[in-house]
Write a structure and sequence with these properties.
Rossmann fold; binds glutamine; alpha/beta; seven-stranded mixed β-sheet
Length: about 200
């Protein structure tokens, strides 16, 4: 299903409605892929996407913008058709099957069978960092930045946990859906983006 740009690169769409999309674009560019900022339905047609990144930000706002910009349906269709996706923080919420403590009018794509609680780490742990041991990555632990992160409270069968903090999953995968409750784009360590991109090329 891989389409190649004229330079032969993979092309990843980055949902760019609000939130932390710019650093994702930098990280993906450093991994040698082309990126397309997705702000309107027509941007989904510019390139035959090989994957999508849904960044952190505010899932309630992102959900509203998806509707008002008429992006929910075409993105939902691509995801239902199996487009590989990496959702980080609010992006994890947007992909989770169940969302607790969300706004009544917020809706997710339900692409991965997990249950998450918005802002579930509470006030004292509003923002924190942790060194993650991730078997799939070689070398040093991965420094993870959590900002008003969702807590994964339920794991469906077939969901793999790639990293946890205090026994709470923070990085999960199911098929070609990767989600993290932290912000992997905020450090210069691009190994998780490389892992996502590497999975596309196979
Ligand atoms: N708390 C935010 C939400 O509910 C997520 C925070 C983030 O993406 N850093 O969407």
């Amino acid at each position: 299903m891989s389409s190649r740009s004229s330079e032969g690169n993979l092309t990843i769409g980055v949902l760019a409605l609000q939130g932390a999309f710019a650093r994702h674009i930098e990280a993906l560019t450093a991994c040698g892929v082309d990126t397309v900022e997705i702000r309107q339905p027509k941007h989904l047609e510019v390139a035959d996407l090989d994957g999508l990144v849904i960044p952190g930000g505010e899932s309630t706002t992102m959900s509203k913008l998806l509707d008002s910009l008429e992006l929910r349906e075409p993105i939902g269709k691509l995801l239902a058709d199996g487009l590989p996706v990496f959702g980080t923080c609010a992006g994890m919420i947007m992909l989770a099957a169940d969302v607790s403590d969300g706004r009544a009018d917020q809706a997710s794509f339900a692409t991965i069978d997990i249950g998450v609680r918005r802002n579930g780490y509470g006030r004292q742990l509003d923002s924190f960092e942790a060194d993650l041991e991730i078997d799939a990555l070689e070398g040093d632990p991965f420094r993870a930045v959590f900002i008003r992160a969702p807590v994964v409270e339920r794991l469906g069968s077939g969901v793999e946990v790639l990293a946890s903090v205090d026994d709470v999953p923070v990085l999960c995968r199911s098929g070609s859906v990767l989600v993290s409750s932290f912000h992997p784009e905020l450090t210069d360590d691009h190994r998780l983006h490389e892992m996502f991109v590497g999975g596309l090329a196979t």
